[in-house]
Design goal:
single chain; mainly alpha; globular
Length: about 450
């Protein structure tokens, strides 16, 4: 097999592994708060929102050490062990206790940082400047099939149910645990990519020489030195102009990740006006979010349509798509839906509650998210090619800390305030992304000129 074919196969395996694993975990996150509300036990007093806040807070802090872990044990083992912890977290719901629930939340935060940093590292080392956009889209589209399969199962399993019994919960989470374990073992099919020839001046990183020319962590002598170099590189990259500007769209991606992966499903399940379909809508909503994610990943990644006009139009489309979704949600969903009890809310928003509008918003949330994330992955992989593991660690650090904050305030803030926060951050993040894209274009032109 040619080096290009082997690299593409690695990207496909990486995407399929994440698809299988996040079929389990994504479904778990989507139904978590609803399941907890239905759990009748004096032994358990946990909150799904609080658990997710803990996960993302630890995730954020652990991103500072994730490149060091990858430098020591390598990206493949990092993916495997991270996946095992994901499976353990899902298994907690088979018979949850408060202590095990929150303990695994902490461990999952650490594992997630290692897992996602390793993903970014493998994506970058299996890509070239000319294929990073395509490969980002392939990975993203494959992974987002997880939303389709897992939530389709939830829709049929819970359709017409107003209360989730212990048997319902145990059946679902035993199945999800097994699926997650299968995904973890798939990562061992990834092969080591063939070494590339030394890059010419025209294809080197777009960053200044003091950042991009330094040796990568893999060449540092000794495990302790590798770990320390990786940690220093993360701090160094976080202070660059490009990364400081990108931190705003990173932060927005964390806020809307929280909303579509946990809060919105909870809102739909709390809308008593939707009748017996309310709980089943959680799964159907997740399916349509996945359809939007897959469509966006396919159009803007696999087909690489963003190359002709740059990344900015894709990000702008994502912003408009999200703003339309937020406005319709504001009109359609009651403001107290995120914090309503299991029996749901009797309040109405500004229109007759519509299941069709709610599901259209699910699709728009997924499409907009794919627009942002495919372009963020692409531009980080392009700008920080020589230091991909530390760069993706910074990306996930910012994204996860804002997700933690969002999951925490989701316990208390009404829906319209949550939507307002995302509108403001979405606008600021888009403007910042535009600035970085223009910097990348100017740098590339200067590099190409210098190569003649």
């Amino acid at each position: 097999m040619s080096p290009e074919g082997k690299a593409l196969l690695n990207i496909i395996i990486l995407g399929v592994g994440f698809m299988v694993m996040f079929t389990a975990f994504g479904t778990c996150g989507n139904i978590e708060q609803t399941v907890i509300k239905s759990f009748n036990s004096t032994e358990f007093h946990g909150s799904g929102y609080t658990s997710m806040a803990i996960i993302y807070a630890v995730f954020a802090a652990s991103n500072l050490i994730a490149p060091s872990v990858i430098a020591v044990i390598g990206p493949l083992l990092s993916l495997f062990f991270g996946g095992i912890v994901y499976s353990a977290y899902i298994a907690v719901f088979i018979h949850p206790y408060t202590w095990s629930f929150y303990t695994l939340s902490v461990l999952l935060g650490i594992a997630a940082a290692v897992l996602w940093t390793a993903q970014g590292n493998l994506l970058t080392i299996n890509s070239k400047d000319s294929t990073i956009g395509r490969n980002s889209g392939i990975f993203w589209a494959l992974m987002q099939f997880s939303l389709f399969f897992g939530n389709l199962y939830i829709y049929f399993a819970w359709h017409g149910k107003t209360h989730i019994t212990d048997k319902d919960r145990q059946t679902v989470f035993i199945t999800l645990t097994v699926i997650s374990l299968v995904g973890s073992f798939l990562f061992f099919l990834i092969q080591r990519p063939d070494p590339e020839p030394a890059p010419s001046d025209a294809s080197e990183s777009l960053l200044p020489a003091d950042i991009s020319d330094s040796s990568s962590v893999s060449t540092s002598p000794g495990l302790g030195s590798q770990a320390l170099d990786a940690f220093k590189k993360s701090i160094q990259l976080a202070m660059t102009k490009e990364m400081l500007l990108l931190s705003i769209p990173f932060a927005y991606s964390g806020l809307e990740l929280t909303f579509y992966s946990g809060v919105y499903g909870t809102c739909l399940g709390a809308m008593s006006q939707f009748g017996e379909d309310a709980k089943g809508l959680i799964g159907l909503s997740g399916i349509l979010i996945g359809v939007g994610e897959i469509l966006g990943g396919g159009i803007f990644g696999i087909l690489d349509k963003c190359n002709r006009y740059g990344r900015n139009p894709v990000v702008f489309l994502g912003l408009i798509t999200h703003f339309v979704a937020f406005y319709l949600i504001f009109l359609n969903i009651a403001s107290d839906a995120p914090v309503a009890p299991e029996e749901g809310t009797q309040m109405r928003a500004y229109m007759q509650p519509s299941i069709l509008v709610a599901l259209i918003c699910s699709f728009l949330l997924g499409l907009g998210d794919s627009c942002f994330n495919t372009q963020l992955i692409s531009i980080v992989g392009l700008l920080f090619r020589e230091d991909s593991a530390p760069a993706f660690a910074v990306f996930k650090f910012v994204q996860s800390i804002t997700a933690a904050i969002a999951f925490f305030y989701s316990n208390y803030l009404l829906l319209h305030w949550q939507l307002l926060i995302m509108v403001v951050m979405g606008f600021l993040g888009t403007v910042s992304f535009f600035a970085v894209e223009w910097i990348a274009i100017i740098s590339r032109r200067n590099t190409d000129y210098d190569s003649f």
